[in-house]
Amino acid sequence: MTVATVTNDGSRVRGTGKAANVALWVLQIGAAAMLGMAGFAKLFGEPAMIGLFDAIGIGQWFRYVTGGLEVLGAVLLLVPALAGVGALLLAGVMLGAVATHLFVIGGTPAMPLVLLVVLAIIAYGRRERTLRLLGR
Question: In what helix (H) or strand (E) does residue 5 lie, and over which residues does it extend?
Fold first, then answer.
């Protein structure tokens, strides 16, 4: 649900309703927790993550890049003005994770797909803030 408010100068600003805002915050906190933990596991060299990135075959540098992007995106999800940007960043990471599962390492891409849908909902719900950052 979108709510339009009028500012002091007479311009209209669209935003989300209270219930939608609460729901988005629940999704943002959940996604930030999951992706933050996954990112830190990659950065701190959990043996499962080392093995996973060995199977991918690009090199361990890619584990650091992926972990760094996940931690950065998780932090951005918790900053109100930057949550949409964080969701878009993490959606790109999840697209890569889905493709990696489908074409490189096998297995089910269910978890990255679920996270991708959640991140798409967040990005859509926070689109007004993101557009404001771009000056639109």
Answer: strand 2-6
